[in-house]
Amino acid sequence: MPVIGFGTYAPETYPKRMAEEATEIAIRAGYRHIDGAYLYGNEAEVGRAIQKTIADGTIRREDLFYTGKLWSTNHAPERVRPALEKSLQDVGLDYIDLFLIHTPVEFKPGDEVFPTDENGKMIFHNTDIRDTWKALEACKDAGLVRSIGVSNFNGKQMELILNAPVLKYKPVCNQVECHIFLNQSKLLEYCKSKDIVLVGYSVLGSSRVEKWIDQNSPKVLEDPVLLDVAQKIGRSPAQVAMRYLLQRGIVVLAKSFTAERIKQNFQVFDFELSAEDMKQLDGVNKNLRYLSLDSWKESPKYPYHDEY
């Protein structure tokens, strides 16, 4: 898995064609890890960018690492493979490099992405996550996916899978929100102890969609300590925020729809932060989670009640 990935999520207000344009720019700039998901609603557009850059010789399929995700209405074992096949069809690939359970929280099975009752409350469901995992293992055995993992899981939820009576393949990674305000030190330590990769999203802060994010929350890229370090070493705040996570052994997903920033965010391999810089940035942690998903708290599988 390339240590820097290009994130393809965009708020609903963005035209879907922007995902295609940005993904193409990213691949041409050197990104080889593309992070997608059924939920984002743009796998077809992302796929077109991939197909275009393969067709013109910019990349070969085997050089590209594509991540897809199983949405929460598809945890029932019989829905897992059809969901994966839908992503394969949309993105135009014969196999996906990595397929993740998008979140441990499960919704009522069906085609409605966010099923709600007459009062507007989410309708949750409760498939044993180990049964979902078995169905993913079968997809790997069938050659539809190379690796399988999880996203937004806490340590206890990962243990459920790791301690399953019959475990064929353990999760290769856990993709979670991670940035200087939520540095995930305990979850990182846990994952390293199990030889599981931690992948960070929202590493530059969130896209601040009003529906999900507290608009009064501080912005990562405006943090004074981050700005001081960036100014001192002559780098952008985004480059420093990413480098901080990379040096801790975290795979970083960066997201932008601006060509200049897409290219700039990839230029993080030719400098290092000093031990003093790293210590300063460690001190910025506030355990601040942008994506707390409060409307999901009634689910028995809500992951953020636990510390990690």
The amount of helix comes to: 25-40%
How many E strands?
A: 8
CATH C-level category: Alpha Beta
Number of domains: 1
CATH superfamily: NADP-dependent oxidoreductase domain
Largest beta-sheet details:
8 strands, parallel, barrel
Topology as a string of helices (H) and strands (E): EHEHEHEHEHEHEHHEHH
Beta-strand fraction estimate: 5-15%
User: Helix segment count?
Assistant: 10
What is the spatial order of strands in the main beta sheet?
A: 1-2-3-4-5-6-7-8
**Remind me, CATH topology?**
TIM Barrel
CATH architecture: Alpha-Beta Barrel
Q: Average pLDDT value?
A: 95
Which regions contain 5 or more consecutive residues with pLDDT less than 50? none
Query: What distance lies between the first and last C-alpha atoms, to the nearest angstrom?
Result: 24 Å
Structure classification: alpha/beta
Outline: globular
Any idea what the radius of gyration is? 19 Å
Explain this structure.
The structure is a single chain. The chain has 308 residues and is an alpha/beta fold. It has one domain (4-301): TIM Barrel (Alpha-Beta Barrel), CATH 3.20.20. Helix content is 34%, strand content 13%. The protein is built from ten helices and eight strands. The protein has helices at residues 17-29, 43-55, 77-91, 129-141, 155-162, 185-193, 224-233, 237-246, 259-265, 275-282, and strands at residues 4-7, 33-35, 65-70, 96-101, 145-151, 173-177, 197-201, 251-254. Helix 1 (17-29) runs parallel beside helix 2. The mean pLDDT is 95. Substrate binds at residue 102. Belongs to the aldo/keto reductase family. The record marks 69 as: Lowers pKa of active site Tyr.
